[in-house]
């Protein structure tokens, strides 16, 4: 009875994912996976639980059936979530119970011996990870990433459809930038308009609104400030949100406000655009993540701005905005069809300005599919 079918219409939830995690744990010699609220849990079960001090955890022993440990008062929320279709055993605990002892006892019963290698999610709260370890004296904790990331890193067609919808939604927000990005308005005012539009255009939550105008554009993760946009500013706008199914958008465009860029700016921006295109074109199965990074970096370095490209070229995206695979020197992971990640080189001149161009792309069977379609040249807004 191990392959319960996904509920019709929801190809994002399948017991196969839980069983896939179990098979990989077995291969890796990990006795027990413990995954708490967050994207790992949502990915495996469809349950978008909120993180809190009370323990909620999916426990996957290397043998035997997986189970969910949940506070009794939240058991109805599991039943109401897509996770109900998986028919996982629910172990509800009362306010005065020890949920860690419950979790540990069930794992020991399934394995016939106490688990020794216990893997927890990278973003599991320390109090939960340490609680599991205390309940299993003699166990050693490690990260579940090698098991769970390996599943999450290759997206199914249904997941790519969700990422494409998120990409189209954020493209619609960028397409309206001229309504908001105007001389005299502050970054914070522009950011508030963008946030409203992110929600209006197919997201249920705003993840971030970066509006880096003028010198603030040189700080890649600058968010919003009271600085007013000036004529002639370059403005880096990097925005993203979460859709109803949990998938994320993330797209950067750089705008010139009030007047055309001067020749020098047009020159280095042209190099950036060529680098972004080159890295995108490099994507295909078998090419490594670091080769995609190098494709962007080499063009920028040859043009003399290598020192100004101060971050990796990209990051994977799915239920988290930043997840594997990371597109960075040192990551020799060969790309596979279904891997989704950003391609986002930037050039930054501290104290003056910066620019970045970011698309989400997917490695396909024979190349690349781009999930953002807005213009990548420097868009001049009237101001
Ligand atoms: Zn971004
Ligand atoms: Zn990004």
Biggest pleated-sheet summary: 6 strands, mixed
For the secondary structure, the number of strands is: 17
The CATH homologous superfamily of the largest domain is named Creatinase/methionine aminopeptidase superfamily
| Mean pLDDT reading | 96
* Number of H- or I-type helical stretches: 10
Using the coordinates above, name the CATH class of the largest domain. Alpha Beta
**What would you report as the Rg, rounded to the nearest angstrom?**
23 Å
Q: Largest beta sheet: what is the strand line-up?
A: 4-3-2-1-5-6
The dominant shape is: elongated
End-to-end Cα distance, whole Å, is 63 Å
Bound molecules: zinc ion
Strand portion: 15-25%
Can you give the helix content as a percent range? Answer: 25-40%
Chain-wise SSE layout:
Layout: H1 15-28, E1 32-35, H2 39-45, E2 57-61, E3 67-71, H3 75-79, E4 89-93, H4 99-111, E5 117-120, H5 126-135, E6 140-143, H6 145-152, H7 157-175, H8 187-200, E7 205-213, E8 234-242, E9 251-257, H9 263-282, H10 289-302, E10 314-316, E11 323-327, E12 340-343, E13 346-349, E14 353-356, E15 359-363, E16 368-370, E17 379-381
Parallel strand pairs: 1-5, 3-4, 5-6, 9-17
Antiparallel strand pairs: 1-2, 2-3, 7-8, 8-9, 10-11, 12-15, 13-14, 15-16
The chain binds zinc ion (ZN) (2 copies).
One zinc ion is lined by residues 238, 240, 250, 252, 358.
């Amino acid at each position: 009875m191990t392959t319960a079918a996904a509920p019709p219409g929801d190809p994002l939830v399948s017991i196969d994912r839980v069983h896939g995690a179990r098979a990989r744990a077995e291969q890796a010699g990990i006795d027990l996976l413990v995954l708490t609220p967050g994207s790992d849990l949502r990915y495996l079960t469809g349950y978008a639980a909120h993180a809190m001090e009370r323990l909620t955890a999916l426990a996957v022993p290397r043998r035997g059936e997986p189970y969910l440990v949940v506070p009794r008062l939240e058991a109805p929320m599991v039943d109401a979530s897509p996770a109900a279709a998986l028919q996982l055993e629910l172990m509800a605990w009362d306010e005065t119970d020890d949920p860690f002892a419950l979790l540990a006892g069930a794992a020991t019963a399934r394995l016939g011996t106490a688990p020794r290698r216990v893997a927890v999610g990278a973003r599991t709260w320390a109090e939960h990870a340490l609680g599991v370890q205390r309940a299993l004296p003699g166990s050693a904790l490690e990260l579940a990433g090698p098991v769970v990331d390996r599943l999450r890193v290759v997206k199914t067609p249904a997941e790519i459809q969700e990422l494409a919808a998120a990409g189209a939604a954020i493209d619609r927000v960028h397409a309206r930038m001229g309504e908001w990005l105007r001389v005299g308005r502050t970054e914070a005012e522009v950011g508030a308009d963008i946030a409203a539009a992110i929600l209006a255009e197919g997201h249920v939550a705003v993840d971030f609104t970066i509006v880096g105008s003028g010198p603030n554009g040189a700080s890649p993760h600058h968010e919003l400030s009271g600085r007013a946009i000036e004529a002639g500013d370059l403005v880096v706008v990097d925005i993203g949100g979460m859709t109803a199914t949990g998938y994320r958008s993330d797209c950067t465009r750089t705008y010139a406000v009030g007047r055309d860029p001067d020749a020098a700016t047009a020159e280095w921006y042209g190099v950036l655009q060529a680098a972004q295109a080159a890295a995108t074109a490099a994507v295909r199965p078998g090419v490594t993540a670091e080769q995609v990074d190098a494709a962007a970096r080499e063009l920028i370095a040859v043009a003399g701005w290598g020192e100004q490209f101060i971050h990796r070229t990209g990051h994977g995206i799915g239920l988290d905005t930043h997840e594997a695979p990371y597109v960075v020197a040192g990551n020799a992971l060969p790309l596979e069809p279904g891997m989704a990640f950003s391609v986002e080189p930037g050039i930054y001149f501290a104290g003056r300005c910066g620019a970045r161009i970011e698309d989400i792309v997917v490695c396909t069977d024979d190349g690349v599919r781009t999930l953002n379609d807005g213009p990548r040249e420097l868009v001049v807004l009237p101001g």
